[in-house]
Amino acid sequence: MHPFARFSSTKRNFLDKPKNRRAWLFVALLLPILLLLFFTSAPKHYYSFRRLQQRFRAPLNGQCKYGTVYVYDLPPIFNKKLLDNFQDLDLSNDGFGPKATDLEGVIPKDLTPAWYSTDKLAGEVMFHSRISNYKCRTYDPDSATAFYIPCYAGLASRKHLNGNFSASERDSQFESLLGWLTNQPSWKKSKGADHFIILGRISSDFRRDSEEKSGSSFLLMPPMSQTLRLSIERSPWDRLDIGMPYPTGFHPKSNSEVEKWLKFVRTRNRSKLFAFVGGKSKKIEDEDFRDLLLDQCKGFDSCKVVESEAASPAILEAYLDSNFCLQPRGDEGFGYTSRSTFDCMLAGSIPVFFWKRSIHGQYEWFLRDDPERFSVFVEEKQVRNGSSIRKVLEGYGEEEIQMMRERVSNLIPRFLYYAVAAAAGGGKEKDIRDAFEITVEGVLRRIKEASISQQ
């Protein structure tokens, strides 16, 4: 007799006995109940089937060359609840803001769905939303290479930047955050050396070194002494600071949309030599310099002037119609960088800078380390001493302008933030290399290399 047949016969004899049948029936009824109690009483973080599936997805897909990222589940007061505090700030659509509905006739119709009214300070929300679906995210802190702190620090400090607030009021939320973080096992292992945070404001807003100044002292607090921080403007004296691009309004869902946009800006007929976006400045640092630029532009027919309060279609159209665009320091005069730099380059226009710090050493991961190849630098002091910007720009020949514009357009994909759905890993766009991908890969690479060097 075949051994399997003998086993089958034994099994039937066992089940034929009433006592054994009742035992099997009892086990069959009890097992589902025990499993249900186990999974409902256990912490959801560890036993959710969806989380388990996501937790092991990243290491299995072979795309995580530099490791994986663990995302802290912070108390909502440090991120989600902050969104309720600002009625004047629309951060819907994963931070992109509302759809742009006023660009018809300015850009190709089939690209308008990819445009949003994105706030320049929306980076924290956009990044948090995107990394939640990142292909190299892990739910296992013991296997993570880097740890992301999803605190909306820019939003937390927004109401305290101006007004009569004490130093303790401006720092209290960040002290609470660090109190929570420093009690986490992952933080204790490295003292924050393998952690990073996204700052939606310029980093100087978090470096208050005296009680009389505005902003917070978040980055100067001792627990932050080893943590990487990525912001829209970095300090050139801090090795832990990394500059990342300001958000623009263009958030494509596919590489094909990017290619369509590149073709549009590359073939655009530009009737103006240069453009300047910005009216008479307020009482801020270097307040008169923008006025000098405005005066130079208004006296020249081949310069397009747009008041800074104008609607975004007028600004975009000015950049699309111009070969060059003037970029004075800071949108509000306090920093050295500007959202308009990326709006200008997105339109295929060549930025003209007046402070080295506005571009040099700021966005090397994204714009490379050779800004002279895609931009023009005119010393601010030269303009104050009467130098003509017009004459400087007229010194560039048509062939040279075309070459620089081509370099600008080649950089566009590297500072865009794609729509979340396109980059979640489930679609056809497997080769996306936008600003988010470059940021996370750069952080992982830097932390991994630092870890290896210390071994």
UniProtKB/TrEMBL annotation:
> Which part of the chain is the Exostosin GT47 domain?
64-391
Superkingdom of the source? Answer: Eukaryota
UniProtKB keywords? Glycosyltransferase, Golgi apparatus, Signal-anchor, Transferase, Transmembrane
Compartments reported by the entry: Golgi apparatus membrane
InterPro entries in the record, alphabetically? Exostosin, Exostosin_GT47
Tell me how this protein sits in the membrane.
Answer: Single-pass type II membrane protein
- Major subcellular site: Golgi
Q: Please give the Pfam families that the UniProt record associates with this protein.
A: Exostosin_GT47
Q: Name one GO molecular function term.
A: glycosyltransferase activity
Task: Quote the cellular component terms of the Gene Ontology held in the record.
Answer: Golgi membrane
Task: State the similarity comment.
Answer: Belongs to the glycosyltransferase 47 family.
Q: Please give the name of this protein.
A: Exostosin GT47 domain-containing protein
In its UniProt entry, the species of origin is given as Cinchona calisaya
